[in-house]
């Protein structure tokens, strides 16, 4: 007999900044397999973000195979017609773990956004699966997705565009390869124009784990940077396009690997992080 809906375990999200170790200690991937329930569980790799899905699948087929995952398979999607295939969607919804690879997040959403496959991802999370996304797959996890653009030295009005993501987390914009590609100015650009949104930058070989019970953990080799502009004073509405905005009272949190905070109301959570924790753990 299945558990009552109110007692079912909600799944977890593992949001990876790209460049995760796939050959040596594989800390991030090992944790993903553990979150799925162990190597005997069924893991599906979604390669839709990549223009060379066969190469992407070969990488993760070897990595997960090396960890003893026997029940591993690829879902390869090349059209929205395929993404609306009922049998494929039903099969994906029953996976214990789903890994969304890197590539181009715009391509990923153009192929699966609003389709049965999109619905299947949410259904899998609701029934307790772990869903991981790396690089483009990480950016796609939020409702507001960082789609394109760059800002090299300073934030620049209009330099970055957003799109609609998968929507597992709300009120958050996720950037990846964060420290390695020096993307602080890019994420500040997003926050300057969208202070309602929290900016989350994730380093390579690093992951933000959002647990179904409401906690977060940072794991891997680097750190997660959080930018909160909700208290900001800015002139961004009045300056010309590509100008550098004034941004006063922007709050930045740096969460290195090993940082861990519990569910809402945990007395160990700093007050300045409580709002972030509440927002980011409200997964759907």
Automatic annotation (TrEMBL):
<dbReference type="InterPro" id="IPR029062">
    <property type="entry name" value="Class_I_gatase-like"/>
</dbReference>
<comment type="similarity">
    <text>Belongs to the peptidase S51 family.</text>
</comment>
<dbReference type="InterPro" id="IPR011811">
    <property type="entry name" value="Peptidase_S51_cyanophycinase"/>
</dbReference>
<comment type="function">
    <text>Exopeptidase that catalyzes the hydrolytic cleavage of multi-L-arginyl-poly-L-aspartic acid (cyanophycin; a water-insoluble reserve polymer) into aspartate-arginine dipeptides.</text>
</comment>
<dbReference type="GO" id="GO:0004180">
    <property type="term" value="F:carboxypeptidase activity"/>
</dbReference>
<keyword id="KW-0645">Protease</keyword>
<dbReference type="Pfam" id="PF03575">
    <property type="entry name" value="Peptidase_S51"/>
</dbReference>
<protein>
    <recommendedName>
        <fullName>Cyanophycinase</fullName>
        <ecNumber>3.4.15.6</ecNumber>
    </recommendedName>
</protein>
<keyword id="KW-0378">Hydrolase</keyword>
<keyword id="KW-0121">Carboxypeptidase</keyword>
<dbReference type="InterPro" id="IPR005320">
    <property type="entry name" value="Peptidase_S51"/>
</dbReference>
<keyword id="KW-0720">Serine protease</keyword>
<dbReference type="GO" id="GO:0008241">
    <property type="term" value="F:peptidyl-dipeptidase activity"/>
</dbReference>
């Amino acid at each position: 007999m299945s558990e009552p809906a109110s007692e079912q375990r909600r799944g977890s999200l593992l949001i990876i900044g790209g460049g995760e170790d796939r050959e040596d200690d594989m800390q991030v991937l090992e944790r993903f397999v553990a979150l799925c329930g162990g190597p005997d569980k069924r893991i599906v790799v979604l390669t839709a973000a990549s223009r060379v899905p066969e190469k992407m699948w070969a990488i993760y087929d070897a990595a997960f195979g090396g960890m003893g995952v026997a029940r591993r398979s690829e879902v390869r999607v090349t059209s929205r017609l395929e993404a609306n295939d009922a049998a494929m969607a039903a099969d994906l919804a029953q996976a214990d773990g789903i890994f969304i690879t890197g590539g181009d997040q715009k391509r990923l959403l153009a192929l699966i956004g609003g389709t049965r496959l999109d619905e299947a991802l949410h259904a899998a999370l609701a029934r307790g699966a772990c869903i991981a996304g790396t690089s483009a797959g990480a950016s796609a996890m939020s409702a507001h997705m960082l789609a394109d653009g760059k800002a090299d030295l300073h934030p620049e009005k209009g330099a970055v565009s957003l799109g609609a993501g998968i929507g597992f987390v709300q009120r958050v914009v996720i950037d990846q390869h964060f420290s390695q590609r020096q993307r602080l100015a890019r994420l500040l650009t997003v926050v300057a124009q969208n202070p309602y949104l929290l900016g989350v930058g994730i380093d390579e070989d690093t992951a933000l784990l959002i647990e179904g019970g409401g906690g977060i953990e940072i794991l891997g080799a680097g750190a997660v940077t959080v930018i909160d502009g909700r208290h900001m004073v800015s002139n961004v509405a009045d300056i010309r396009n590509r100008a550098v905005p004034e941004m006063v009272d922007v709050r930045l949190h740096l969460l290195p690997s090993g940082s861990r905070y519990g569910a809402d109301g945990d007395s160990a959570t700093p007050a300045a992080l409580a709002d972030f924790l509440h927002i980011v753990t409200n997964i759907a």
